[in-house]
Amino acid sequence: MSLRKLYYALPPGLRYLARKVYYLPVDLWEGLTGKRHPYEPPKGDIYIGSGDFIRQGRHQLDLLRRYAGLQPSDAVLDVGSGIGRTAVALTGFLDASGRYEGFDVVQKGVDWCNRKIKKDFPNFNFQYVALNNDLYNNSANRATGFRFPYPDAQFDKVFLFSVFTHMQVDEIAHYLKEIARVLRPGGQCLTTFFLYEESRPDGAVSRTEFNFPVQKQGYRLMDEQVKSANIALAFSTLSSIVDAARLTQTDIIRGYWSDPALKTSDNSFQDIVLLRRPV
User: Fold this and answer.
1) Which of 205, 77, 47, 225 lies closest to 152, judged by CA?
2) pLDDT-based confidence at residue 55 (cuts at 50, 70, 90)
3) How distant, in Å, are the alpha carbons of 45, 48, 51, 77, 128 from that of 116?
4) Domain at 79, CATH number
5) What pLDDT, on the 0 to 100 scale, is given for residue 41?
6) Considering only CA atoms, which of 104, 85, 129, 133 is closest in space to residue 231?
């Protein structure tokens, strides 16, 4: 069994503990030497991927500016705000007239953000939502019945980094409808997916370390046992659920997850999808 499959085989609580133990030496060292950024959590507490926390947040900010036209005065919603990776970068970009809202299914991430970020930036707010996700949360509440805790037409921009890659298709479809509801007319959404052509699924299964061998109707899974571990959508599935949400797909920027030849210094590992709520 690979380390990735072994990790996914653990229940959420044990995954957090395993990461905490693994990074304990470096976290102790950084804490003692003061080498950690003041708005960076210990590595053992970061449950949202690997890589340099601060650098990745700045890269995501750059993607939002470049592709979604993010402005300092925008009202933004961070769906799956995690432990603040994008929020930290936005603290140096949004001005006093801008507004940040984020929510996540992992309480310890939300608590850390409110304790470390909100206290210094009152226009930033984070909420915990108890929703079931077999990668992160064992709650009985399903995402398909969740109404975002915001009134209609509140946000200029909505973004989701590596969120729909960990949700089931019916949950993604419901979230897209909620995104359409909370966006202002003309507002934009930037989100990431793993996308593949149904006629050429080889791009989803050819990589040795990162592939989706489990075939389903219109999507593929990395692991049959953990359906939210990682999911890849067929382009036709994406088009169908975007149309059902009454959003307009304006662009797709392919990531390099399925083809290392696409990698450059400033593009994304996952595929970026840009959506707009019609005026």
Assistant:
1) 77
2) very high
3) 14, 17, 21, 19, 15
4) 3.40.50.150
5) 79
6) 133
